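Sample 1 of the test manifest.
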Amino acid sequence: MTENTPTRLDCGKTIEELSAYLAADRLPPNPDIDTCPECLSALDGLDHVAQLSRDLIARDIGRQSDPPESWITTIMSNIAQEVRSGRSLPLRHDNPEVTLSITEGAVRALVRSVGDGIDGVVIGRCRIDGDAETLDAPVQVTITASILWGRSPQDLSEVLRGRVHDALRQHTDLRVAAVNIVIDDLHHIIAESQITAESPIITESEDPT
Amino acid sequence: MTIPPDSSALAAQLLAIPGVAEIFPPSPPIVQLSTAAAGLLTRSPIRADLVEVKQTSGGTRITAKIAATADQPARETGRRVVDSLLAAAEPGAEVTVQIVRVS
Amino acid sequence: MAPTGEDGADSPWEDVSDGTLVGRAADGDVAAFETLVRRHAPMMRAFAARMLGSVSAADDVVQDSFLIAWRQLPTLHDPAAVKAWLMKITSRQALSCLRGRPFDRAVPERECAVPPELQPESVVIRNAQLRALAAALEAVSEDQRQCWLLREVAGLSYEQIAEELRIRPSAVRGKLARARASIYARMEGWR
């Protein structure tokens, strides 16, 4: 292979022209190119080069050595310094000189561990809506969850809602008006790639009381 | 005037309370991206106080951040911690307790 | 005393989607973030190594990228699209790394562990093809290679590449066309 490979096809088109045509997503359509067998074959080849680039990275991934565990540890210890505490949710105390609170981050983590404790449930997000920084103000808790393929979303939602209510009543002074559960994902058995992004979302809302 | 309570003595006192799992310094160090990425992050040689005790014009101000165990109601644990700090401090002390984890 | 990892040390989440893990991580769950790191680091490292021509520089860039990702996760609108988002962050970090240091590419062509004579012919041809591509990629100009990798590997749009490289989208198109033509020409024997 020489450095000065000719780039003009016998039909007169240059490789650069064809590549520009590809870069423009073959728009506007050029009948001269679209009907010329030589151009079409070159376009296929050019397209193939793009696919090959992704293959090259895929091969790199297969060949690269795993990062040392310390590399991951560095990332994890750095992010652990940046805790997401969120708001301070007040806890009741008689003494006016006292400020007692639990962080929103702690409540979310509590909800996650309660939810994960239910077989077939993995919690996603947990949102606390309302004026949670004021004692006795009603709040709504909305939780997204992924459930094990084949399980009943209704049953798991009921169990999850009950446990979250109990945990929040036990550990916090939040006035929880409702716990809304959104099952927006499935896991296990079917591969992730087979779940469409728009898989049916089941929302189980609770009437605020 | 009473002697202001000692931070490490207060920390030991809090750790003995049922339901208290851990105590964290109220003011953690801030990580800079560049040092973090270079893996050069080292802990400050001077350890931050686990329980912060400050003398202000208004009196003593005590601040503590704790992790609570999930086997006891965290809000009750928090109240026990507050009461314990109030008992150790002079009357009128300002006490702030935050629960940052329940597990 | 309870361990720091609230959800346990091993990853029980191999089958759990990116979207669910991103939600947890955005809420502050460090363990979920670690699963995302382990899941996506290989692609980011390989891509950054091709961009930078250095494995160790790539590792630094990817480490930085994850720290930025942690900070920005709560702003990610489509949690399921986290892979593309991570690649965008990696692209940006790799480019700023390239801007900040002199050009010193060490070609990251790794030799295959299995000797060619022990491989099926199709694999030999395939590997030769990929080696030819790797060489062709090294031979094009720096800006063309960047455009190429950002578009074809990181999957950035023309507009996104233009923004990252601070040039016009039409210029991106031109660089890509020239990169593709030049790589194609250099791979004549293998296409």
